[in-house]
């Protein structure tokens, strides 16, 4: 698959601190890529380096195969960037601001403004001063300025920061709208949003990449075993003995809900035991109500990747 | 985007920011009030109203005061030019655009200059009043205004550079004022030192020395060289300051 962003062995040093250490990862063309890490991990610094706002101390960044150092002028046109704090002129009106940004990005792009206003849901507030808008609208204006010159790659640094659940939902819809048309790299602390939107993730900590790749493959790295959740009507001691006799290497956890039983079965990750297990419950007339494989959530993956225990 | 288009685009935005802010009207009001009061006092205090006495007892001291007041006005006018952009992170927006650093610097400088000239323009009423009474030494008036514009340009470059150093407009204003005051006080060093070569160097480096040349109506080549080299030096420092994010 063609790569849109390639970060190769990038290091950024400031006096007395290394913000980013030998970081390598890539973002595939057309993907929505989540960039995760605890506060101070180096996400914003990396994003600014990708945009050419900060020059790396060492290493290279490629956008569409072109080196950022050599063709920064050309590549800046391919990039749209929403920093952590949207760069807004609060005294300007929304439409006036977008026209100004369109103007400094290139005269011919002014005609995009109407389209962007519509896409970002800003038509109703286009005549209002940015300083008077709610946080959700300000964030949308921030996204709109990143899109006004029709970039191929959009980098969003915490676009959902400080938003209420409704505004987060609207921002999610906006990002989903951009999907398929552009490559999107975005960071967020709302991990379930990342899980909903992204196909790939990169987890960093203290300036280093901990995990990188499609969510499923990262999930497999951390998932040492499979867990099945089974809902049954009956599972007495006789059935339990028979189960443990048949499946010696599986562990069982019980949770009783009034008349139903919830079983958690922990199995080694190698081999598919689903058919075998469901057959057992059906043949023994356990009253199988539901059976599903539980996968690790992105929050657990993030926690495991960023805690020391996971690195040991 | 050619150089002028980029400069005009940002200049328009900067001027709009200035004229939408109450600061400019407060400063213009204060400045005009103080100058009007001074003009009235000089006029009342003048013993005889000949052409020569009007120039020496009213206009030259009046222009000296205008120059001195701009020492306070310029830090206030230039303090937000870069520091506000840094604080609101809008400078990154400009860096990501098609604008070159030089376009950003020149448009901000021009905005500051236009605003300063707007404030200065209110003082035109004084020579006009004198002109209505028969005063016609317009050469002195013109060269004095050139001298003031010369000083304003120098002060603005310092203000622009100091504003690019910090995110805090107040710190930018205080730093600009200190640098400008230091340059003005260099005249005292000129008087204090006995070594002739140092005397000449300090005299050349102090802005008021060159301003006086304009007011006397004797504009020399080195006055213009000073203006160009001073502006060039502070433009270079501002450019380097903007580039420092890459260090």
Q: Write the H/E string of chain A, N to C.
A: EEEHEEHEHHHEHEHEEHEHEEHEHH
Please report the two chains with the greatest interface, counting residues with C-beta closer than 8 angstroms to the partner's C-beta: A-B, 28 and 22 residues
The residue fraction in helices of chain A comes out at 25-40%
**Any idea what the shape of chain A is?**
elongated
The major beta sheet of chain B can be summarized as: none
Tell me the number of helical segments of chain B per DSSP (H or I, 4 or more residues long): 12
What low-confidence regions of chain A span 5 or more consecutive residues with pLDDT below 50? Answer: 308-312
Number of helices of chain A: 12
- Rg of chain B, alpha carbons: 19 Å
Biggest beta-sheet profile of chain A? 6 strands, mixed
Strand order of the largest sheet of chain A: 6-7-8-3-9-10
Oligomer: heterodimer
How would you portray this structure in words?
The complex is a heterodimer of chains A (312) and B (247). In chain A, 36% of the residues lie in helices and 30% in strands. Chain A is α/β, with parallel strands linked by helices and 312 residues long. Chain A has a six-stranded mixed β-sheet, with helices on both faces. Chain A starts with a strand and ends with a helix. Chain B has 247 residues and is mainly α. Chain B contains twelve helices and no strands.
In short:
The complex is a heterodimer of chains A (312) and B (247). With 312 residues, chain A is α/β, with parallel strands linked by helices.
């Amino acid at each position: 698959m063609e790569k849109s962003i390639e970060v190769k062995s990038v290091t950024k040093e400031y006096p007395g601190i290394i913000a980013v250490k030998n970081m390598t990862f890539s973002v595939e063309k057309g993907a929505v890529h989540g960039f995760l890490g605890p506060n101070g991990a180096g996400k914003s610094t990396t994003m600014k380096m990708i945009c050419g706002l900060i020059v790396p101390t060492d290493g290279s960044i490629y956008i569409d195969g072109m080196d950022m150092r050599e063709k920064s002028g050309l590549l800046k046109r391919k990039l749209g960037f929403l920093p952590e704090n949207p760069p807004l002129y609060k005294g300007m009106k929304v439409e006036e601001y977008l026209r100004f940004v369109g103007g400094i990005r290139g005269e011919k792009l002014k005609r995009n403004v109407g389209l962007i206003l519509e896409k970002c849901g800003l038509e109703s507030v286009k005549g209002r001063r940015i300083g008077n808008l709610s946080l959700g609208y300000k964030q949308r204006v921030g996204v709109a300025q990143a899109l006004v010159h029709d970039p191929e790659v959009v980098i969003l640094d915490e676009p959902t920061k400080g938003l209420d659940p409704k505004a987060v939902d609207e921002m999610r819809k906006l990002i989903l709208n951009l999907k398929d048309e552009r490559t999107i790299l975005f960071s967020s602390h709302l991990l379930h949003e990342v899980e909903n939107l992204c196909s790939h993730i990169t987890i960093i900590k203290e300036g280093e990449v901990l995990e990188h790749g499609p969510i499923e493959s990262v999930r497999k790295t951390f998932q040492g075993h499979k867990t099945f959740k089974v809902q049954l009507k009956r599972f007495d001691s006789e059935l339990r003995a028979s189960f443990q006799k048949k499946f010696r290497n599986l562990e069982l956890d019980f949770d009783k809900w009034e008349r139903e039983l919830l079983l958690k079965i922990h199995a080694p990750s190698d081999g598919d035991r689903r058919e075998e297990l469901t057959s057992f419950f059906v043949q023994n007339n356990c009253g199988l109500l539901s059976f599903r494989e539980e996968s690790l959530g992105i929050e657990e993956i993030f926690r495991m990747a960023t805690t020391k225990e996971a690195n040991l | 985007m050619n150089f002028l288009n980029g400069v005009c685009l940002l200049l328009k935005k900067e001027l709009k920011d200035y004229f939408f802010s109450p600061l400019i009207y407060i400063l213009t009001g204060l400045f005009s009030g103080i100058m009007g009061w001074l003009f009235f006092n000089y006029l009342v205090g003048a013993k005889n109203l000949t052409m020569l006495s009007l120039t020496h007892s009213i206009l030259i001291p009046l222009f000296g005061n205008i120059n001195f007041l701009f020492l306070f006005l310029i830090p206030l006018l230039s303090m937000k030019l870069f520091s506000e952009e840094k604080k609101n992170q809008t400078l990154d927006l400009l860096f990501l655009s098609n604008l070159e650093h030089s376009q950003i610097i020149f448009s901000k400088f021009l905005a500051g200059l236009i605003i300063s000239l707007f404030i200065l323009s209110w003082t035109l009423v004084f020579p006009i009043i004198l002109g209505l009474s028969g005063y016609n030494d317009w050469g002195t008036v013109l060269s004095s205004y050139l001298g003031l514009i010369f000083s304003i340009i120098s002060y603005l470059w310092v203000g622009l550079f100091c504003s690019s150093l910090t995110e805090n407009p107040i710190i930018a204003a205080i730093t600009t004022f200190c640098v400008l005051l230091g340059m003005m006080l260099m005249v005292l060093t000129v008087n204090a030192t006995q070594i002739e070569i140092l005397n000449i160097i300090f005299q050349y480096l102090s802005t008021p020395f060159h301003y006086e040349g304009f007011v006397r109506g004797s504009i020399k080549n080195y006055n213009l060289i000073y203006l160009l080299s001073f502006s060039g030096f502070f433009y270079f420092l501002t450019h380097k300051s903007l580039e420092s994010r890459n260090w």
